[in-house]
Amino acid sequence: MVKPIVSLARDENIEVAVNTALNHLKLPDLHNKTILLKPNVGRETDPKLGINTNPDVVFAVYKYLNAKFNAKFLLGDSPIINTDTRKAFIQSGYSQLLENKNINFIDLDEPPPVILQIPKGRLIKKIKVTGYWNEIDCIISIPVLKMHMHCGASLSFKNLKGLIYRKNKIKLHHFQAPEILSKFQQKIEKVKELDLAIADLSHIFNPDLAIIDASYALEGMGPSSGNMVKMDTIIASTNYLAADIMALTLTRQSWTLNDVPHLKLISELLVDMPKSKNDIITIPSDYQKFIKSLEPPPTSITIKYKNVSLISEQACSACLSTIMNLLENNKKFIEEHFTEANPLRLAIGKGLNESDLYDNTYLIGNCTAKNRENGVFIQGCTPVESKIMSIIKQNLEK
């Protein structure tokens, strides 16, 4: 295997960091290509929190590539369900990029989907992807570096999950294949069906360039409820797995790929892919000076409110993030109406048991529907925060 190169750069001026990192790479020929700049803009949230990709990074990448190549640039993503794509980009600080006449902003969910076959997939044999698929020549994955409560970490490959069409993304969280999973659990303890599904996508997704935004990273309970850490760092490579491995090397020194199972699976699935940092050349070679340890995602979800009881069994990150934001944004209301003796009872996930539930438990999300007779069912995948609060308030009035 020819060792892939990962270029590292750190500077408070993030454009300088981007330029430095890309200057050390032999970029593919992008002349006359249609290039998708694919950041992680999955939520309507403010910029530079480590939740969505920093728009300054994306703008710097565009300026660098536009100066070198005569190409057509697209900018787009497909956010979580019930999120307006344009609003998510605007709130996240992308207005300047959206107004740039040389960049075509696209909502990846807008046109009818393209169906791609995955004959070698373990769980996924075919998948609906963005209808722009056949118009795109090159994909530049520009994720934010963040820990992830279900996948260990979310980096340049998982960022490509946004290419999947609309609610088809959610299907990856719903697979149940215990017989297939058990074979992999013997080698990879933390592996889940979700990891197998993400790894299956490596048969069809192969970004031409990975530029990991670690200007503001997210530690702890990602993808949206952790703590922002300022790193001022860019990690770039034409080999996405090499970039992801080095991102972990810099932030979680005690981890191996087993701690991010979908990357472990991809490293074994594809020929000539790196298995560890030992299979990678870094520029500069003394990568240790870029190390900045981040807190890992929690092994269990704890609630800091004594007047809230949460049952989470096999819940996806979308539901968990919604709950965490709901509690944070409505703390005063919850304190006024619920007590330790009579808490706000919430339940999420497909693995709930009837014995865990009270009749005043709010069953949030379609995955809880089988227990709808045992509580207050709130439909949606995922129901929006305002809808949940509206139903809670209606029940209090009753």
Portion of residues within helices: 25-40%
Report the mean per-residue pLDDT as an integer.
95
Radius of gyration of CA atoms, rounded to a whole number: 21 Å
Rough shape?
A: globular
Portion of residues in beta strands equals: 15-25%
User: What would you call the structural class?
Assistant: alpha/beta
How would you name the oligomeric state of the polypeptide chains in this document?
A: single chain
Number of separate strands: 16
CATH architecture of the largest domain: 3-Layer(aba) Sandwich
Can you identify the CATH class of the largest domain? Alpha Beta
Question: Which stretches of 5+ consecutive residues score pLDDT under 50?
Answer: none
Spatial gap, N to C terminus: 67 Å
At the fourth CATH level, what is the homologous superfamily of the largest domain?
LarA, N-terminal domain
CATH topology of the largest domain: Rossmann fold
How many independent structural domains? Answer: 2
- Put simply, the count of helices is 12
User: What is the N-to-C succession of helices and strands?
Assistant: EHEHEHHEEEEEEHHHEEHHEEHHEEEH
Largest sheet: 10 strands, mixed
